[in-house]
Every structure is written in structure tokens, then in C-alpha cells.
Protein: DUF3108 domain-containing protein
Organism: Segetibacter aerophilus
Amino acid sequence: MKKVLLSGLLFLFSARLSAGDEFCSIRNNSFSAGENISLVVFYNALGLYINAGTANFTVTTERLNNKAVYHIVGTGVTNSKYDFIFKVRDRYETFIDTSNLLPYKFIRNVDEGGYKKYENITFNHTANTALSTQGVYKVPSCIQDVVSSMYYARNIDFNRYKPGDKIPFTIFLDNEVYNMYIRYQGKETIKTRYGKFRAIVFKPLLVKGTLFEGGEKMTVYVSDDANKVPLRIESPLLVGSVKVDLMSYQNLRYPLTSLISFR
């Protein structure tokens, strides 16, 4: 997998879903149209975290091919003062079915340190295919893209699992199928740049690339409430480490009851 800064923050996981798996069709109970989440990316190379950039996710509703869809846009941008070191201008889009959260279309337009990539993928869940500019690819049932998988994962009932359990699903990226998982770690209280939260903790399996190390080295904290919004993501990089904190939000579906106190 090539340079994928934002997608590395979006839950890349491993182990196959069968067509009859319960996660093939999941109801959305965690987010709604109008939601806007902003996070700040802090980079650490010499023992000091610097504000390296921002990531933002928005949700709207529209119709695609006469079907009701959530249109989710994720953007990642480096702080302009550090563009001379490694400039990032990423934009990811997914259009997912409002009834079962399966993606119909995925668009990736990234510019990371001079590496540029554009993908436009259409999923046919009846034929189990993915159509890209490179051709038609056979995919398994329940396939996700890297953005839809994030919102899909927010609807998992983690109360059904015990620490150490793996939760599998499958994504399609770079014209390849990746069988991935997240490993549930349990719950804990954390302090972020925003405040003190009760959090659900898990580790996604990462595929080694040019930025992230492979394995279960990334730790993700999401709010322990009905929203399950990302609060913090921590991971070593091939050089240094990164910490991503929630900094602002708008129009959450439910009150952020996991927030214990502001910073």
C-alpha cells in the first residue's frame, strides 16, 4: 500500500466476512446528516509534539442513482508552515447506503509529498464487483472502502465483546481486497487536548506502508457513548510518531455524554 496518510487514520483492519455475517448489513445508530468532526494531527520526532495538520469529516445526505445515501467527505491537510517538509492535501469521499451502510461509490484524490493518486470506484453489491478506471474486480460480500469502514465501525456494539476479541471486515483499496480486523481492547478514561473522556479502545491491524508500521501498533479511542466519535489516535510512524486528537464537533446525533470534563 502506498502513501495513505488519512486512510491510515481511518481503521485499516484483517479476517474475512462471509455473506451471512451479521456485519453485512448494519443499521446506523451513531451519526446523522450535518455531523462535522475536526481533529488535529500532532507529530513527534524529537520528544516534542508539533501541530502538523488537520483532518476533517463531514456527513450530508443526497441521492445517488435514485438511492438515498450518506455522502461522507474526509480531508487531510498539513500545516502550511511544514509544507516544505512534507505537503499533504488529501480528499476522500464515500457514498454509502443509508439502510445498510454499504458503499456505492468511493473517490480518493490525494497529494502526499509529491505522490499523487486519484481513484473513482463504483461498487455493485449484486454482482459483487468493484469498477475502477483500471477495470472490473471481483470483491466479496460486505466490502467496504476506507472511509465507509470508519462509519460502519462506529455502529459496532462493543458491549458484546471482551478485551482481545477480533472484529473482522473487508476493504477495497488500490484495486485490491484487504481482509482486516480491529482488536477490541476494552474501556478506559483518557485525557486529550479537548478534555477528559470515557473511551472505547481498539487496535486496527495496519498494512505496512511508507508512513505507518504494520501490525497492531495503532491505538484508537472512540467516545464511550452512542456517537462513538474518534477522540484520539496514536501510532508510531516509520520515522517518529503521530497523535490525532478531536478538537471540535458539530451536530452530533446524541449528546457527548462520555465527556467528563473540559481540559
